[in-house]
Amino acid sequence: MCPLLVGLSGPACSGKSTLARRLGSWPGWVAVEEVAQEVFREGFARYGTLDDLRRDPDGYLGFQLAYLWHHLEREDEALATGMNVVTDRTVFDCLMYSRLYLPEGHLRIFEEAFRRAPVRYDLIVLCAPVPPREDGFRAVADLRDPAGQLDELAGILSGCWKGEILLLPSLPVEQREAAVLNALSGLRGRGGRRGSNP
């Protein structure tokens, strides 16, 4: 049986990292941590902050492309272990941030790369915002409008995702964990269905 791949998606401060750590601690599961900070540190730290990076369309396009391929590489490495995988963020989050912050010409370049990306989640968990906290990395704009980001992600997923989606409201992490477990039980009961990127 192929390992499951569950992607946690949602705006900044929606509890994805906390939930990913919980799910990744299940027997037979591993978590792929969010890679944005690592990508920023390794190739874009000269900009100082994410807000400053977004003011340079060429730089932000480079960041999003690096983030996309680095994230996919981490998914591949985790799946190669044979364990079930949960990811903190999905490739759809890259697309959402690109649509929010890249000018049209740069966005077309990103979207062309995105169309070539192998997207193979069994379940996408769309997390609603929880009370925000500043961590020194998140952009100020992301903390200002998490509901707008959630709407943007929901629109992206409804337009280009054919797989299973679980919408998680702002609940305690234990209740979110139970909801994911329930969704996975239903998915396995139907034989599973890996979605794709049309």
Describe the structure.
The chain is of the alpha/beta class and 198 residues long. It has a single domain, classed as 3-Layer(aba) Sandwich (Rossmann fold). 53% of the residues lie in helices and 12% in strands. The protein has 9 helices and 5 strands, in the order E-H-E-H-H-H-E-H-H-E-H-H-E-H. Strands 2-3-1-4-5 form a 5-stranded parallel β-sheet, sandwiched between helices.
Determine Rg (CA atoms, Å): 16 Å
Query: What is the CATH H-level superfamily?
Result: P-loop containing nucleotide triphosphate hydrolases
- CA-to-CA gap between the ends? 24 Å
DSSP strand tally? 5
What spatial form do the alpha-carbon principal axes imply?
Answer: globular
**Strand numbers in spatial order across the main sheet:** 2-3-1-4-5
| Helical/strand content category | alpha/beta
Order of helices and strands: EHEHHHEHHEHHEH
CATH topology (fold) name: Rossmann fold
How helical, in percent, are the residues?
A: 40-55%
- Strand fraction equals 5-15%
Please tell me the CATH architecture by its name: 3-Layer(aba) Sandwich
In the predicted model, the low-confidence regions spanning at least 5 consecutive residues are: none
Secondary-structure map with pairings?
Blueprint: E1 5-9, H1 16-24, E2 29-32, H2 36-43, H3 50-54, H4 57-79, E3 84-88, H5 91-101, H6 104-115, E4 123-127, H7 140-144, H8 146-160, E5 164-168, H9 173-189
Helix pairs in contact: 2-4, 4-5, 4-6, 5-6, 5-8
